[in-house]
Design a protein that fits this description.
Layout: H1 5-18, H2 22-31, H3 37-41, H4 45-55, H5 58-90
Helix pairs in contact: 1-5, 2-5, 4-5
Length: 92
């Protein structure tokens, strides 16, 4: 049985409340880029550790710059993950 409009609205409200903040992610990226804090914040510890290790090589610095463009997509992925979890919980 598909979700009702009310259930979908509740899910979207929870996604908005539980999803990471874009502003916080960018502030972490700006001020704590050298420890990949933005990736830890966005739930990507594996790539954060890899990025820290790569930082000691020039590639890590380039990767940190590329993250400026990837942060919105990472936030959308996190929101989709929350949305799927909530939809599974709403369906009996």
């Amino acid at each position: 049985m598909p979700l009702t409009t009310e259930e979908k609205m509740l899910i979207e409200m929870r996604v908005a409340n539980e999803s990471p903040s874009t502003a916080t992610a960018y502030l972490l990226w700006i001020f704590l880029w050298f420890v990949s804090a933005h990736r830890f914040y966005l739930g990507r510890p594996g790539s954060a550790i890899l990025q820290i290790l790569c930082f000691f090589i020039v590639i890590g610095f380039v990767w940190v710059l590329i993250d400026a463009f990837l942060i919105p997509g990472m936030i959308r992925d996190k929101q989709d993950e929350i949305r799927r979890r909530l939809e599974r919980a709403a369906i009996p």
